[in-house]
Task: structure prediction
Amino acid sequence: ALGKGSDLEKAFATAALVYNNSADPKGKLSKAETKSLLQTQFGGFIQGQENKPKYQEIISALDEESENKIDFEDFMILLVSLTLMSDLLQEIKNVKTTK
Result:
C-alpha cells in the first residue's frame, strides 16, 4: 500500500501491520501477547535494558493483570518509550548518513 511511501511512512505502516497480524478481531492484544511481540519483534531495542528501572516498570505493567488488553495506541506508546531508553537509539544517533 505504501510502495512509494517515505521511509518513515513505511516504518509506521510496518509497525501497524505487525500489530494487526497479532491482534484479536477487536484489534487488541493481551498484555502477555504484547510482551511476547516486543521480545520477538523489538529485541534489538530492548536488549540490555533489563536493569533499567523504566524498562522494569513497563514489563511489570505487562506482567500484572495480564488478562487486560491494549490497543494500537498503547502499543505505539510502548514502542516509543522503549525506543527512547534504548542503547540502540544512542548508537543510531551517532550514525551519519549521506544521500
Q: What stands out?
A: The domain at 7-98 is CATH 1.10.238.10 (Recoverin; domain 1). The mean pLDDT is 86.
